């Protein structure tokens, strides 16, 4: 690193490899509860030039908010500015004010978002590199949100495994304003870190918030929008599963069997708890409320609901929505059971996990708005705009039962594309309109694309279809596995 005099001289493969090896050492020391060694290694990482270069790169190049400025209205775009920022980057226990803005939520409300300055974002990225491997060694098994190597698909697979053999009662919990109400002192004490890091975390939590022309200084909560905020929320909520297991162990019967019948899945501040016995589930709800009280948090009374996966209750329909999917169990037909198993089976239900209706509606609206707003542009630009959105949605939903929904979405897209074409050429006949924008390639008809000038039998560009993304089951992360445990073969596969 001594020969690096500019941003262009940095060899990123070497930088990332060096930091990853240091993170492996932090993870193993934390796993063995050698916290003095953990703190020494974290201080070594924070003073490393490689870590500072990597933190600045992730904030100014990789992050989607790299062109969004904070209260100082400064952006870091040129290689020279990036190199200078990395050279002077240091956790000094200070923090600049946060710019408050609002983004719409799916339910029509607005979510407050705090935008730190570029320098503070780089500091947070640097602190994240040091803190993340320490906590990955102790995070609970069923926590999937904002963690490396884990995703929404892991959470949904855990739910499927938890209810595939037996219907259960479900506590679909929602924490009221989780990010805005976390107690600062409780969180700092739980972080279990050295004084310099604790002082820096405190400065970020206490940083003033600029909204309009007035400043507000928060007494609680972690500002949404910061790089380190999801990690702090995970740290605050860590340990809930342990409290639930402690309650389960107080019940009579086989303790191991009781723990296995309880399914707990958490994704950041969203979590569900499932159990076959309603009375035990109500007891688990009380344990959760008791766990959240010291943090200053509570369950949302309107959004928290108890339902059953298979049978309807007096006030609730069966099934629940979680992380953009709808989970429900339905009765199998006897003929279906005989055809698939060739024997009489005691399991008379089937577990169905599909994309939620709210998510489908939101995706349709996005496709429709793009097609309408691109009426005056070329077909090529429209395809380039739609393809990443269609492919991204299909890849995120292809792990569950989505084939029929993908076909409906393709039909919906075609209908709006036809309106798009008719609006552009109101006097053109439907036959010429079809020949202009839709083509036949092999056995496929009505392919929305642009023909290759050199070969009429091929398309130089075509629209991505939802149903062309194959349905593929997701392999869930095993146990407490982490990318920092050194098992590179497992994570490569």
TrEMBL record:
Q: Does the keyword Iron apply?
A: no
- What Pfam families does this protein's entry cite? GIIM, RVT_1, RVT_N
Q: Which residues cross the membrane?
A: none
Record keywords: Chloroplast, Plastid
The Reverse transcriptase domain is annotated at 84-327
Question: InterPro entries per the record?
Answer: DNA/RNA_pol_sf, Group_II_RT_mat, GrpII_Intron_Splice-Mob/Def, Mat_intron_G2, RT_dom, RVT_N
From the UniProt record, list the coiled-coil ranges.
none
For whether the record's keyword set contains Membrane, the answer is: no
Concerning NCBIfam families, the annotation shows: group_II_RT_mat
Q: What is this protein called?
A: Reverse transcriptase domain-containing protein
Q: Which organism is it from?
A: Halamphora calidilacuna
